[in-house]
Design a protein that fits this description.
The chain is an alpha+beta fold. Helix content is about 25%, strand content about 30%. Strands 1, 2, 3, 4, 5, 6, 9 and 15 form an eight-stranded mixed sheet that branches. A seven-stranded mixed sheet has the order 8-10-11-12-13-7-14. Helix 6 links the parallel strand 12 and strand 13. The relative contact order is 0.15.
């Protein structure tokens, strides 16, 4: 496989062609926005006869673990042209890109999956369920005063990117560092709208950005950014006022919030709007996966006040068979202590219980996607019953939610 780092002069037109072929972009303006998307992003291409026929992008960012930000690599694009299929290009290039991200200092990798299972072979495990709700915005009851917002356009991308990067993030909250990432997302929104509020010093503090459709919707909120829960309620109030005209709007439930607490007449909406373009919907599913790239760094982020838990973690990593060089995944044996100061050190200890897990399952357990006792049933994780019970307590974390799309 001919793998090369992206060269804008040589590869831009070919990468745009790939994205057009797979249907990710259509218009010239969308193609132009790829310049912003690629700015600050690491891109690798597979060449056939000197032309890029597969492209994989990784974008640097951060992911919140409890109160700690871990260095993150977002696999932000995996695309293969119509003539590059069935040659193993996507697999080889994805493995290469993940390896390069680890060498560059990322402790975690995350991606949006096109189908369950494909990225398992790179060590990724499925994330938490995300709740997507479509409802009549007039039914959103928020008992706070309404305040006139400011209008936002694509020209405000720098402010929007800065505010989104500084937003409140709970466990699992993710951000991309290059501002071009958000700029491109704003351009790619179909018939976009943006509304927000500024602080007393004039800085954009909280906002919504999304896409519209027709006179009555459905609208779709794609970016929801706030720094305090009072600001979140003010944004919900703003959404409710849109109900003067808009009949339905879709929102992905923010981390830590049960949105249906604020939506009135849920069952009535579901019955009255059935089979219409504005039908009430509440669907859940996971669209993202993550994996650990630096196990000691990730373990050190955990602070647990209960009785320390010590064990040996025997980790397998499918990347070991796909990579050469100084980093071939995190497979191996580690002595792990979970406590106020958690630590993982390469090695073994015959006096400790042993947890055996794939990096896929261990990553899910470590981030709190599912309890170890659940993963012992459905995933590749095994260990003594007493150890599993201790780990259930030591890894009792809020469900992680990125609160952004990638």
């Amino acid at each position: 496989m001919d793998i090369s780092s992206y060269d804008a002069e040589r590869d831009f037109d070919a990468v745009v062609r790939i994205w057009r072929e797979v249907g990710w972009i259509d218009s010239d303006s969308e193609a132009k926005a790829m310049e912003h998307f690629l700015d600050g992003t690491d891109c690798f291409v597979s060449l056939i006869d000197g032309s890029a026929e597969c492209a994989v992008m990784t974008t640097p960012g951060a992911i919140r673990y409890q109160d700690v930000d871990l260095p993150l690599s977002i696999v932000s694009g995996v695309t293969t042209s119509l003539v590059g299929r069935k040659l193993g290009l996507a697999s080889g290039l994805t493995a290469h890109a993940v390896g390069e991200a680890s060498r560059g200092g990322a402790a975690v990798s995350i991606l949006g999956m096109f189908e369950q299972g494909f990225y398992d072979k790179f060590g990724f495990g499925s994330g938490s369920y995300e709740h997507h709700i479509r409802f009549d915005p007039a039914s959103l009851h928020v008992d706070v005063p309404y305040r006139t917002p400011v209008r936002l356009t694509v020209d405000d991308w720098e402010e929007v990117a800065a505010a989104f990067s500084a937003r409140y993030r709970r466990h699992g909250g993710t951000t991309a560092h290059p501002p071009g990432f958000i700029r491109a997302e704003m351009v790619w929104a179909d018939k976009p709208f943006g509304l927000g509020y500024r602080s007393e010093t004039g800085e954009l503090s909280h906002f919504i950005w999304g896409r519209t459709k027709g006179e009555s919707g459905p609208y779709r909120v794609q970016l929801l950014s706030y720094q305090t829960t009072d600001q979140l309620l003010e944004l919900f109030k703003l959404v409710s006022v849109l109900g003067d005209q808009v009949r339905s709007i879709s929102i992905t439930e923010p981390s830590g919030i049960q949105l249906q607490d604020l939506v009135r007449h849920v069952v009535r909406q579901e019955i009255a709007t059935a089979k219409s373009d504005h039908a009430f919907r509440h669907v859940s599913g996971t669209w993202w996966q993550l994996r650990i790239l630096d196990l000691p760094v990730c373990v050190a982020a955990r602070s647990y006040e209960g009785p320390p838990v010590r064990f040996v973690a025997e980790i397998t990593d499918p990347l070991e068979a796909m990579l050469d060089g100084d980093w071939t995944g995190v497979g191996g044996s580690y002595v792990v202590t979970i406590g106020e100061q958690s630590v993982a050190e390469p090695g073994s200890d015959d006096g400790l219980p042993v947890l055996t897990a794939s990096v896929n399952a261990f990553s899910r357990a470590w981030f709190g996607v599912r309890a170890p006792s659940s993963l012992r049933v459905t995933d590749d994780l095994t260990g003594p019953a007493d150890l599993i019970a201790d780990l259930d307590r030591a890894l009792a974390l809020p469900a992680p939610h990125p609160d952004m799309f990638f």
